[in-house]
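Reopening this one. Same input as before:
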Amino acid sequence: MLDIRRLHMLKTVAARGSITAAAQSLGLSAGAVSQQLSALRQDVGVDLLRPDGRTVALTEEGRVLLEHADRILAAMEEAECAIAAVRGTVGATATLAALPSTVARIVAPALTALDAQHPQLTLTCLVTDQAQLRELTLGTVDVVLGQRYHHLPEATPRGIEVSPLLDDPLLVVTAADRAVGRPVALRELATHTLAAPPATTECGQAIVHACHQAGFTPTTRYVTADIAAQLTLARAGLATALVPRTAIDPTTPGIRTAPLEGDPILRLLFAATRLAETANPTTTAVVAALRSAARQDRTTQLPMAQDRAAHPTVGPSRKPSDRLARTLRAT
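Same output, byte for byte:
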C-alpha cells in the first residue's frame, strides 16, 4: 500500500525542483526525504525522478503517479474537511499568507477579530511579496490573501478557490503642498518623476501597462517596491507615487492622495483556499474575517487633495487602464 506521506514528498519535490528545497520546506533533512522517496520507488518498482541539470524532474512514471497522488491527497483533505464540518468548530491552528501592503488595513483587523471570536485558534501569518498560491496547493499555508492586476491572466492553479475581497485602486500620492484638488488623468503624469515598483513586479507592470495605454512611457527615477520609501519620496516632493489605497496609512503626515480620473488602475484583493466540496470551518472563519476587514476598509478616509486654488497642479508633475475583472477562473 502506498504511503500518503511519501506521495506528499513526491509532490513537494516536483514543485520545488530539488530534494534539498523540498526538505527545507518540509522541515526535514535531505537524507530523510531521499530515503522516503527511495522507499516509494521500491513500492512502485520504477524510477520516479531523474536528474535534470542541477535539479530533478519526474519521469513519465513519476508524472502518472503524481496525477493519482493529487487526487488521493485531495480526497484525504476532503475527508478532514467533512469531519471538521460535522464537528462544526474552528480548529486550533491555521496559516495565512499575506502581502505586506495588506497587513495594516486588512490583516491586522482580521487577526484582532479572529482572536476575539475564536480564542482557541492560533493563526500563523506569513508576510511575503512572493506569490503563495503554489504554497497553498502544497499545503504549507491554508489561506492566501493575494492580488491580481488587470493586465495579468485571470487564472489560478487547479484545485484553488478564490473569493474576491476588495477592488483596490491605485491613488496618486504627492506632497501635501503640491496636491491637486481633483481626480488626476493618468496622462498628466507624463511630465512627473515617479517613484514606482520594479517593472518586474505585478504593480510595476500594471503602472507601465497603463501608462503605455495612455500614450507615454513613465519617467521612473526612483525604483523601489518598498511602499514606505515611495511615500517618503512623495512627501519630500521628489516624486509622485502610484500606491494601492489599502497600502496607505490614513494618518501618514505630509501627503495628499487623489484618484485617477475615469477607470482606475485596480488590483483585486482576494482570499484563496484549497477547493473542497465541504467547507472547512477554520478556513471559512479566516476568510470571513478578511472579508469583514476589507468591507470596513472601504469606509476609511484618506488624506485627499485640498482645494485646487490653494494647491495648484504640480509642475512637470492617461487613458486609464481597463477595469479589473471581478471573477478569477480556476484552470
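So the earlier flakiness isn't reproducible anymore. For the record, The two ends are 31 Å apart (CA to CA).
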